[in-house]
Amino acid sequence: MKIIQILPELDIGGVERHVIDLSNELAERGHDILVVSNGGQMQHQLSSKVQHRKLPVHKKNPFTAYICSRRIITWIKNEGWELIHAHSRVPAWIAWFSSRSARVPWIYTAHACYSLNYGLTPLKHANAVICVSETVQEHIKDFLPVNNAVIPIALTVPEVKWDHNIGENIKFIFVGRLTKIKGLGTVIEALGKLTNENWTLDVLGDGPEREILEDRSAVLGLQDKITFHGYIAETDTFMSRSSCLLFPSYIEGYGLVLARAIQIGLPVIASNIPAVLEMAGSKKGLVVPGDVQGWCSAIFDFISTGRAAAQIPVSSIPTLKRMVDSNELIYLDLVRK
By the 8 A CB rule, do 222 and 299 touch? Predict the structure, then answer.
């Protein structure tokens, strides 16, 4: 098959990781894959077998979206692309317009619990919608077409495993975009109550809240205990040399960072939210998001015992093969019609 994947950018994030892994594996299976995005730091991770073309598909501008759509329509008609797979809401509008004009099917993967508004209108007109979790499916159910399915995101097999012998120092790690919904502020407040304990925190990621979080850490006297690294490519290596992942999100569509930590074998302290509960199968050991005292207690218990109360089985994380098989079946069904 000849498949176009559209996403806003190839900078750091779970959607980007998913599209890269999906595209690379589809190309290995012999499909022609074209990724359309505004480019970014992760673009080099696309296989040499995957084409990439840069368009401003990240801009929330109707005129820009129309121009991008016209370019894609031309490529479809001249090069024989058979299906469009959109990721994120602006690409969904572009895919919908392109599909109607070029007369090829299009599908959408819903990666998050979006705001329920006019921006989701294209989903009702997609030939199929994939939700990355039952949590997302339930959240956007009023915008889904009849043909929808849950296919959890999968990851490649990690090349490293958690090192149990990392020493006596407790090394917590947070990985994610620094926005309010990721909950790092809660963790910092909790750690501010544990200044006399033996711990450090590595923060891997960047975002609009970084300066605020750094300032708050300094106010609490944690500047020597918390290190803000910004974006780090080798997050797997960092995880393998840490003691415990802190995953304090208020909301997640799936929780890719959490899934990776589980694959690596790293202990986790995670929020009690629906997407995490889907993985864990039980509320045991999960912490209420935003509950500073709850997070303080959970972190202190880990410092004292070296064990996390939540035990999330690695079997809850799907294999890349299973995920790509499921996507491929949907593609085949639509292309053959």
Answer: no
Distance CA 217, CA 198 (A): 16
CA-based nearest residue to 246, from 200, 315, 304, 194 = 200
CA–CA gap between residue 277 and residue 326 (Å, rounded): 23
Structure token pair of residue 1: 């098959």
Residue 160 lies in a domain: no
Q: How far apart are CA 38 and CA 127, in angstroms?
A: 25
Reported as a single tens digit per residue, the pLDDT across 158-189 is 999 998 877 678 999 999 989 999 999 999 99
CB under 8 Å to 74, separation ≥6 — which residues?
Answer: none
Taking Cα atoms as reference points, which of 250, 245, 243, 246 lies closest to residue 291? 250
Q: List the structure tokens of 65.
A: 């979206």
| 79 shares its domain with 178 | no
The band of 313, judged by pLDDT with boundaries at 50, 70 and 90, is confident
Q: Among 167, 190, 188, which residue's Cα sits nearest to residue 178?
A: 188
Q: Is the dihedral of CA 136, 308, 161, 213 positive or negative?
A: positive
Q: Report strand pairing: 148-150 vs 128-131.
A: parallel
CATH number at residue 311: 3.40.50.2000
Please state, in angstroms and as integers, the Cα–Cα distance from residue 159 to each residue in 74, 239, 256, following that order.
41, 12, 17
| Token pair of 46 as six digits | 């696309």
Which domain range does residue 210 map to? 170-316
The helices-and-strands tally (H runs, E runs) of the chain is 11, 12
Q: What is the CA radius of gyration of the chain?
A: 21
How many structural domains comprise the chain?
2
Cα dihedral 184, 190, 194, 199 sign:
negative
